[in-house]
Amino acid sequence: MGPLSKGNPVIVQILGICSALAVTAQLKPAFVMMASVTVVTAFANLIMSLLRKGVPGRIRIIVQLVVIAFLVILVDQVLKAYVYDVSKQLSVYVGLIITNCILMGRVEAFALGHKPWPSFVDGLANGVGYGLILLMLGFVRELLGSGSLWGFRVIPEAWYIQNGGFYANNGLMMLPPMALILVGIIIWVHRSAKSNKDLIEK
Amino acid sequence: MKFDKNNNVYIIVYSVVMVVVVAAVLAVAAMYLQPIQQKNMDVETKGALLASVGVVVPTEQIESTYAETITEIAVPVDGGAELKLYESSADGERLFIIPVNGSGLWGPVWGYVAVEGDWNTISGVVFDHKGETPGLGAEIATPKFAGQFVGKKLFEGDAFVGITVLKGAGASAGNDHAVDAISGGTITSRAVETMIRETIALYLPYIERQKAATATDAAAVADPAEAAEDGATLEGATAATTEGATTETNGATAADTSETQTINTDGDATI
Predict the structure, then answer these.
(1) Which residue did the predictor score with more confidence, A73 or A2?
(2) Greater confidence, B125 or A4?
(3) Percent helix / strand / coil, chain A, rounded to 5
């Protein structure tokens, strides 16, 4: 449970913020990003854990980079083939998974010292922990920024001011800075919970 | 003797094997996924072609709509090569789409310019790019930039001038041959200008032939008085083509059904 809450990569370790801000304007890209990152962390951890006995210590960072880059290219190719429009929205951020600190961090800190199965689960959990925050951001931003969820309209058209209603989309929600503010709010709420008091620095 | 993992030979062999394995797997994956990706890109191109003539449909309908509205024309040029040209019949209006391409600041830029039957007035454009700077050069792909081109003219009289991109907001106001550049995206904006001028220049011989055919046709069909007017200047003939053609539709519509090889006659017959 660690990586989902107390060790959450985004809101506790503050890693992977860049992509968390960039791809969460809508729920669907956020979900695809979550899936991609989860697959890559899980398999990067698994592969590195399998290789850990044979990797020469002096080039281990390079080996990690090759493994991660390999998985990311594979994911990118698959996305381009099967969810082309989403892959266009994600644009460079799929490629930038390579530089996402969560991956290198987990591989270096965990997979190199543990057996394959725990490493795989650790990668999976970290990917999901990262994705949960993405989904929260995507949910709030798409709902308040475009009045829809997963591309489906949630807020009725008739409510809008231009249609004689009283409602307007919040344009700020569509912009990355708002995502940063939302991340801040999530961190605040998360740290306020009783069980997480120990995360607050004295 | 304990095996030394930091031995140079081991490191080199390890790296080589790793790289070869990774390359092999990626190559197989790329080969397998290529056709599907290619199809996606084709659909995107077709979508862009449709968008340039103002037809926007959901992704699933692009293929069928494309098949209904757009036909490809091969334009022969000197040297045996062929250029691509598209003809659209969206909303019963005949438009020609000229694909253009060039190089921007970071990579290729391309687009589709839809012109009306007079080969002069732009009815819509779509631009796209490989990797121009987001927020600056990448703005050429936005409807705001593309919208500026609607109604602009490619020709001044009979001379091909293309579309110039001018610096400064509103600099192009009232100018039929210019649009406003994107601030901060000067190189990309210039690339658009160059690409339109250079690519369409390749089509000029074909366009001239089509226009000449249209002009003669319009003069022949319109009543004598108008033909005389049209014939006054060569410039006038081109400009009056549309007028003359309209009169013809009202007056003697089916007067000449045999002339099918010329552009405007074709279009008029369907009005």
Answers:
(1) A73
(2) B125
(3) 75, 5, 20
Confirm whether A69 is domain-assigned.
yes
Chain B residues whose CB is inside 8 A of the A18 CB are: none
**Number of domains present in the structure of chain A:** 1
Q: Give the model confidence (pLDDT) of B4-58 as tens digits.
A: 777 888 888 888 999 999 999 999 998 988 888 888 888 888 888 888 887 777 7
Centre a 10 Å sphere on the Cβ of residue B192 and count the other Cβ atoms it contains.
28
The shortest CB-CB distance from A77 to any of B11, B15, B29 is to: B29
Q: Which amino acid is at B155?
A: F
Q: Report yes or no on A4 lying in a domain.
A: no
Q: How far apart are CA A138 and CA A134, in angstroms?
A: 6
- SS3 breakdown of chain B: % helix, strand, coil, rounded to 5? 50, 20, 30
**pLDDT value of residue B254:** 40
B contacts of A66 (beta carbons < 8 Å): 18-19, 22
Which structural domain, as residue segments, surrounds residue A133? Answer: 17-201
Please report the sign of the dihedral spanned by the C-alpha atoms of residue B52, residue B54, residue B59, residue B62. negative
Non-local (6+) Cβ contacts of A65 within 8 A are A98, A104
CB pairs under 8 A between A and B: 50
Quick check: B6 and A57 CB within 8 A? yes
The per-residue pLDDT for range A169-183, each reduced to its tens digit, is 777 777 778 888 888
In the three-class reduction of DSSP (H, G, I as helix; E, B as strand; rest coil), residue B71 is classed as: strand
Q: Quick one: tokens of A51?
A: 């290789």
What pairing do the DSSP bridges indicate for beta strands B95-103 and B82-88?
Answer: antiparallel
B83 beta partners: B75
- The string of pLDDT tens digits covering residues A12-41 is 777 777 777 777 878 888 888 888 888 888
| Global confidence as pTM | 0.66
